[in-house]
Amino acid sequence: QLQLVESGGGLVQTGGSLILSCTASGGPFSVYAMSWYRQAPGKQRELVATISSGGVRTYADSVKDRFTISRDNEKKGAYLRMNSLIPEDTAVYYCNARPPAHWGEDDYWGQGTQVTVSS
To answer: Would strands 57-59 and 46-51 be described as parallel, antiparallel, or unpaired?
Structure first.
């Protein structure tokens, strides 16, 4: 069973940058599609970015050209580099691992890391 631990959140000023890390253990990391989600107070959790097992990246429109998702299968890590941060990016960020569909398993989630962008 896969375990995910996020790190790298914190407080940053508008225009600043942060790199979030998600470290996995307990499973064959390379086969999972990895995503970052976020949830702001009073709002639903939203998908921010995804990188497939094959390295294909997709982004929410709100973060395109500012955020970059990457993965390192040897280190069992997924990363989210966030540039040009704005207050609207303030949220708890969650790492998600989606197994291959034919496995019939649920997604795995980390515990979340807080990102706060001050104006």
So the answer is: antiparallel
Give the dihedral sign, CA 66/91/56/60.
negative
Intervals of the chain under pLDDT 70? none
What is the model's pLDDT at position 45? 97
Query: Residue 29 CB: number of other CB atoms within 10 A?
Result: 22
User: Comparing C-alpha atoms, which of 4, 13, 2, 15 is closest to residue 37?
Assistant: 4
**Sign of torsion over alpha carbons 10, 64, 45, 2:** negative
Question: For residue 95, what pLDDT is reported?
Answer: 98
- pLDDT for res 85: 98
pLDDT of residue 27: 86
DSSP 84: S
Whether 10 contacts 85, CB under 8 Å: no
